[in-house]
Design a protein that fits this description.
The protein has 204 residues and is α+β, with helices and mostly antiparallel strands. 14% of the residues lie in helices and 30% in strands. Strand 8 and strand 9 (104-112) form a beta hairpin. The protein starts with 6 loop residues before the first strand and ends in a 7-residue tail after the last helix.
Length: 204
């Protein structure tokens, strides 16, 4: 998705519910948004089977949105490369990952997919992304295809709770829509107690 919804799930603990609207989030995101897609290097696929796989149908690549906190030792960027409606994996092939920093695309690493078409890169030290929201892009040199996804690096002073909104903890799968409209998202029975017992609950 080209946008993320960050929910202040303090409603679980009896606090006021607050959601960041798509409009407000877009305004925050604009500073780290890069136009178009980065121009990555092109190269032949390593395997003949990969060329065949890439011709089976359209790319179905996906990246896993990164959520991290300033000061984390590692920031792991990951995703999966595949093609066609059968979701055929792109195995043992190179992938170059870019990040949008200061409104410019920057190549952060090149790695190789595994037998399931998956890749992951651990950013450490100076290679870590700065605080803020950043576009990410995974580029396949073999055919020039790619996928865009998101990284959100929270400041160490921020209080952030990350939760699913598909009905596991929330009362329904449409909770995100209710939140955008300013309604109480509700929760599954016992969810507040479980979160409170984790020792990570807080109200701001």
């Amino acid at each position: 998705m080209r946008w993320m919804v960050v929910l202040s799930l303090a409603v679980f603990f009896g606090c006021a519910f607050q959601a960041i609207s798509p409009k407000a989030l877009a305004a925050q995101h604009k500073a780290s948004e890069c136009p178009g897609s980065p121009t990555g290097a092109r190269a032949k696929f390593r395997h003949t089977t990969s060329r065949i796989v890439a011709r089976l149908g359209s790319p179905r690549h996906r990246g896993i949105d990164l959520i991290a906190v300033e000061g984390d030792e590692n920031q792991t960027v990951a995703g999966k490369l595949a093609y066609s409606k059968t979701d055929k994996d792109l195995e043992d092939e190179d992938v170059e990952v870019f990040a949008c920093v200061n409104a410019e695309w920057r190549s952060i690493a090149t790695t190789r997919t595994d037998d399931d078409g998956r890749f992951d890169i651990a950013l450490t030290g100076a290679a870590r992304l700065p605080v803020g929201m950043h576009d990410l892009y995974a580029h396949v040199p073999g055919d020039g295809s790619g996928v865009r996804f998101i990284a959100y690096i929270a400041a160490s002073s921020d209080s952030v709770i990350v939760s699913d909104i598909d009905g596991t903890i929330t009362a329904s799968e449409t909770a995100v829509i209710r939140g955008m409209l300013g309604s109480d998202i509700g929760h599954q029975p016992g969810a507040p107690d479980v979160l409170a017992a984790s020792g990570r609950s807080s109200c701001m």
